[in-house]
Design goal:
This protein has 458 residues and is an all-alpha fold. 61% of the residues lie in helices and 2% in strands.
């Protein structure tokens, strides 16, 4: 059975589920569109500009709840670093309220040791992951790049606690160990820039149209990240960060058994299942964002990711579709990424950037797994920003896709002895934790031989 046949069933299910929560993409009538953006652009950039305008001026759907106008005004004036980040704050608020209510119900109303209480995950997981998941992860992402709460307005102690709250507390309910996100994303991923072997979430060494390679990619993240992050920070001489993340990991590993012993049903419903879902969801996103890597320029921001414009998921995820833009300038505010993209279209053209219209990142991966049919679909979604005579045909676009799906191996991408050692130490840690009955450790422990088998077959 071919990989494309294997992928068709999950692809069909994925399409149905994914679009249940995707909002319509419509312009916000309260905003005045800057028509000069179209008037001043090059003719062959016009379509891309038109599509990006829908992301600039679209009706946003990140915040499911709104507060009274006077409360929101107070937050903007007296709490937030940037008033444009009100939606980030509201996203964290709605997630906090949901997790508080859900946790209280489980701890107070569900029996501790009766597995019949596991029925509640049928309610908890869809709300947590399908409705809240994308919104929370991307809110946390942008808050990691640009602190949300102002120390000038709220004081260093309170602002520090509030800024850390999503990564220290909320992230655990989404399968991300406390305190690891900032180190993984801001310190490692952006500085190493998807370059293997320094970025553990790099897509470079994988044959990215093979589902089994994606499985190996997810397992690599699951079993090797925990010790690699403090190791990476030490290698970069970020001693304070290395100490902080090591401390967070130690607390995390100490707290998990205590929570499990206190209320096993709550632990499984709220933490254990997400411990498995989290790596899959996070790595599916990162894999999809970096699935096409230009082997001729793997370190170019325009060759290591794609931009997705005029896509409904941008309205849920703070314009996450502008991933090239984010790598070009990680400090650009999420609301300004479409305009940053428009103003620098010449560089996207020169860099051979891939732009997709109207689809999300995960659609790309599942289309790639579907084989020729999927690649043709992706070719139909490409927005070309070159003069008409230089536009690529469908066959040429598919040939480019296939080239950018190949593993990228150079002398610089070989694993060093210290890295191999820390990976093996992390594998040994999971096996040890599983042997002593650490809750949830059995999954990464089982993943260790599976990963090595897949690695050997690859």
């Amino acid at each position: 059975m071919t990989d494309s046949v294997v992928a068709r069933g999950p692809l069909a299910i994925f399409k149905v589920l994914k679009h249940i929560v995707e909002p319509p993409l419509e312009l916000d009538g309260k905003l005045e569109i800057d028509k000069s953006l179209l008037e001043n652009c090059k003719p062959h950039h016009r379509k891309a500009v038109e599509l990006a305008i829908t992301d600039m001026y679209g009706v946003r759907h990140e915040a499911l709840i709104r507060l009274p106008a006077s409360w929101e005004r107070f937050l903007c004036e007296k709490v937030l670093n940037d008033p444009r980040d009100l939606r980030l704050f509201l996203t964290f608020l709605q997630v906090t309220l949901w997790l508080t209510i859900s946790s209280a119900f489980q701890l107070c109303c569900l029996p501790r040791d009766d597995n019949r209480g596991l029925w509640y995950m049928l309610i908890h997981l869809p709300i947590t992951w399908v409705i809240m998941g994308q919104r929370f992860i991307l809110a946390m992402h942008y808050a990691a790049h640009r602190p949300l709460i102002s120390p000038t307005k709220c004081g260093k102690l309170l602002s520090g606690a509030l800024n850390a709250f999503p990564q220290l507390i909320l992230s655990n309910f989404f399968g991300m160990p406390a305190g690891t996100y900032y180190v993984h994303h801001c310190v490692m991923h952006h500085q190493a820039n998807n370059f293997f072997p320094y970025d553990i979430s790099s897509t470079m060494p994988y044959q990215r149209d093979k589902p089994l390679h994606f499985v190996a990619y997810v397992l690599n993240f699951m079993i090797h990240t925990m010790l690699y992050l403090p190791f990476y920070a030490l290698r970069k001489r970020r001693f304070d960060i290395a100490l902080a993340v090591a401390g967070c990991v130690a607390v995390y590993l100490s707290a998990f058994p205590l929570i499990y012993s206190y209320h096993p049903v709550f632990f499984i419903n709220s933490l254990a299942v997400s411990f498995v879902l989290g790596p899959f969801a996070l790595m599916l996103g990162n894999y999809s964002q970096h699935i096409f890597v230009n082997p001729d320029a793997p370190q170019s921001n325009y060759g290591l990711a794609c931009n997705h414009i005029n896509a409904p998921f941008n309205m849920l995820t703070f314009n996450d579709g502008y991933h090239i833009t984010h790598h070009v300038s990680s400090i650009t505010h999420w609301s300004e990424m479409p305009i940053h993209f428009i103003k620098h279209l010449d560089k996207y053209e020169e860099g051979g950037a891939i732009l997709f219209q109207g689809i999300n990142f995960d659609d790309v991966t599942f289309s790639v797994f579907a084989g020729e049919t999927g690649l043709k679909r992706l070719a139909s979604k490409v927005v070309q920003i070159v003069p008409k005579e230089k536009e690529l045909s469908e066959a040429e676009l598919i040939a480019m896709f296939r080239k950018r799906l190949q593993p990228v191996h150079t002398e610089a991408t070989k694993l060093g002895g210290a890295q191999v050692g820390i990976f093996l130490a992390n594998e040994a840690l999971w096996c040890y934790l599983s042997a002593i009955g650490f809750p949830g450790a059995v999954m990464p422990a089982i993943a260790v031989p599976v990963f090595h088998l897949l690695y050997a077959l690859a």
